[in-house]
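Appendix B. One record, verbatim.
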Amino acid sequence: MKVLLIQPPPGANSFVAKSGIPEPLALEILAATIPHHDAEIFDMRLDRQPLREKIEIFQPDVIGVGCLTAGYYECVNLLKTIKKIEPKIISVVGGHHPTVMPQDFVGTSTDFMVIGEGEETFRELVDTLESRGDPTEVRGLAIPRNGKVQFTNERPLIDLDEMPIPKRELTRQYRHKYFRGATKSYACLLTSRGCQFRCKFCCQWTLNKGSYRIRKTENVVDELRRIQENFIDFVDDNSWGNTNWMSELCDKIKAAGIQKEYKLYARSDLILNRPDLIAKWKDLGLKAVLIGFESFNDEDLNKWNKRNTVAKNVKATEILKDYGVEIVGYFMVDPAYTEDDFQR
């Protein structure tokens, strides 16, 4: 079958699109799961070819689209446009938003929703459609039916070491345009999924069913060898979730002679537990660490079950500054904040 995987365009006022455009890693991984089908990736954030023209030339049987909540309206508009261009195309949407709120896609020209991880579900769905089998037998789907959502059997989480190497060659024409801030030559790398913590505002531990999974370090190094870009963005939910694993990975990357720069995700308390790892990764090429500070007061952190403190946030900031590592701080902004709150 011909499968077109589409990265939707950003919203007109998207700050994220202006500050960085990462490669569509999820689509590259999905494409790698269906090597026996003819797959292409169409990145509408960068491609100026009209969607109608792309569809008329490639003539896909199936179109897959990923959806985060921030891009919901763009995704829905895209799905409706696809059906207007060619009603026979089977549309599939996956990602965080359809997983958490599948009812939002009822009446949006969506044929199937992938619930949870899509690597095995999407492959089985495409194979089933090609063989004219019964999609309701494919685990991990939600199917709009008569204004409601019909769920198939739940699919267990995958073994990350069985996940194929992303087909980055399918984004070859876009790769020179992916960036983060002033950083060019930029690629994304998935080494783990999930998080051991249970912050009330975060859906990751729910999506990953409370588990924290990591890939074998040798598999990560093997993938890293294949990436041509210089700057690597770890897109994990919590890269620092297993500090012994992070230490081993650092050693193996160094032993392999791989010279790149890195951005990681980490909690401040985990940094405090192993500040030596910051020094070790800095020597390897660590440039930036993303930390969810969330708030300037402990009351909020306790309310959100962050299991952390402002004092630890400050101490971790000092450690990163001492080593010259850039800090990317995330905060949750309350609409009721005063000017004084913002200053704090």
